[in-house]
Amino acid sequence: MKLAVLGASGRTGALVAHLARGRGHHVTGVVRTGNGTGTGRDHVADPLDPEALAPAFAGADAVVSAIGPRSARKPTSVLVDSATSAIAAMRLAGVRRLLVVSSSATAESGDTPVVAALVKPLLCSVFRHAWADVSAMEPVVRASGLDWTLVRAPMLTNGPARGRYRVQEERSVLGGLSLSRTDLAAFLLDRVEDPESIGKALSVAY
Ligand SMILES: NC(=O)c1ccc[n+]([C@@H]2O[C@H](COP(=O)([O-])OP(=O)(O)OC[C@H]3O[C@@H](n4cnc5c(N)ncnc54)[C@H](OP(=O)(O)O)[C@@H]3O)[C@@H](O)[C@H]2O)c1
Q1: Which of 34, 88, 101, 191 makes a 20 to 30 Å CA pair with 169?
Q2: Does residue 74 have its Cβ closer than 6 Å to ligand 1?
Q3: In the chain, how long is the greatest CA-to-CA distance?
Q4: What is the pLDDT of residues 106-158, one digit of tens each?
Q5: From ligand 1's centre to the CA of 36, what distance in Å?
């Protein structure tokens, strides 16, 4: 497949690009600086500018976005802005398949009583800017009319792949508090080729 990866300079995005290349896919990593993924197959563009993005999406089978705020505690709209921009660029380029990394904080059911009543409200208060951003982003993706999948991640780690995780549709993974970026990247790539995941928000965690 031909894939475009947004946020390819980030920790998850770089893993998605690396893993995809290992699986034999043709990958264009979209980065906002010249640093990129070091492969020479990067497209340098402002991901918030649809006209700059569209050429990177030309001929792609799917777009995967692992963009996220560099600081979850500062005001940000990078998730909603980058999703809006990616959707516009995909329309320009005629690409339909979109996978966006979201957060398990948005799942409204499926948590233990302690997580639902205490842990989640506390985290959503501490990370209120990131919470507001991700909450604004999901409806934009759902309303895109594209073949979208939202992948809701819990706390991400840099640990090794386990290759085993739990998945829930439109609800939390009960007690699933973490996931390695390596497993998240593999999950995203598996979903690219999984038509069953279209139009769904999937929570994934250990
Ligand atoms: N960290 C967690 O525990 C956690 C939990 C749940 C969900 N998530 C989500 O998981 C995804 C991956 O997280 P991560 O920690 O692996 O990512 P990361 O390493 O922090 O990378 C973030 C990526 O987003 C890009 N980015 C940030 N602000 C940008 C802006 N204003 N304009 C353009 N690009 C921008 C960065 O580009 P530069 O390299 O140019 O800065 C980088 O490529 C994100 O969507 C995040 O919200 C994370």
Answers
A1: 88
A2: no
A3: 49
A4: 999 999 999 999 999 999 999 999 999 999 999 999 999 999 999 999 999 99
A5: 14
